[in-house]
Design brief:
The protein is built from seven helices and six strands; from the N terminus they run ααββαβαβαββαα. It is of the alpha+beta class. Strand 1 (about 40) and strand 2 form a beta hairpin. Helix 3 (about 55-70) crosses helix 7.
Amino acid sequence: MFKIIAITACALAISSCASVKNIVNAPDTMPPTPKTTPAINAPKGLVTMPSPHSVQDTADKLVAIIESKGMKIFARVDHQKNAQGADLTLRPTQVIMFGNPKVGTPLMNCEQSVAIDLPQKILISEDAAQKVWLSYNHPTYLKERHHLTGCDTQLTNIAKALNGISKAATAQ
């Protein structure tokens, strides 16, 4: 059984161009999916904060703030609209993908596997009680997940930027 796991790990490393170190040192099980809560839950990797605005208004505000900071919007995914296109229902849910190559590239140079989590993403969603939440991956989660070394300054700057734009988008 161990041989099969080892061979599979090597094949994955080769096919994805990931370092073998990251594959071999990966946890045996996936961490539990963090629940969306009104608290900042950075140890589990997710920062979540409430928004007094609708999903649409929060997302619009976020996009305007991101663009005003000179960052690029790579995509805006409206999961509710996509669900409706498949004759399914979903509460309002949008993901904004954005970034700046001057910030992301140094992270990828520290450990290329971080590219799977870039560009940055912010989720804006409405829960069953019609409360709107904004969530994103805390950079510490990326550091731990990808074993990033030598990028602490960049990660600190990213954490400040994510916090700043998120608070601005959710402000009254």
